[in-house]
Amino acid sequence: MRAVILEKFNEALEQTDKEKTYTDIKDDQVLLETELDSLGFAILVALLEEELDIDPFQIMDEPVYPRTFGEFVAIYERANG
Fold first, then answer.
1. Average pLDDT, stretch 44-61?
2. Which CATH number does 2-79 carry?
3. Rounded Cα distance, 11 and 47, in Å
4. Distances (CA, A) of 32 to 28, 50, 62, 80
5. Rounded to a whole number, what is the largest CA-CA distance in the chain?
6. How confident is the model at residue 45 (pLDDT cuts 50, 70, 90)?
7. What share of the chain is helix, strand, coil (3-state, %, to 5)?
8. pTM score, two decimals?
9. Cβ-contact 72, 5 below 8 angstroms
10. What is the rounded distance in angstroms from the CA atom of residue 53 to the CA atom of residue 19?
11. What is the C-alpha to C-alpha distance for residues 61 and 44, in angstroms, rounded to an integer?
């Protein structure tokens, strides 16, 4: 799951014309400190929904914006069962 998310993370960066890519990213990496902006985040979620056939943000009772990459991965892992 983590590898797929990282792949799509980099794809979202590329689609928003960002220069940076990540070969690895730490769980405590703050998402706002990456080049992923709100458009990139939306693209990332759409790419992951296409790849994994899940959008955990649509099924949440209370919306949560993950602060770190690890929190983001955990949301998808929980939604995937």
1. 95
2. 1.10.1200
3. 8
4. 12, 24, 21, 25
5. 35
6. very high
7. 60, 0, 40
8. 0.92
9. yes
10. 28
11. 21
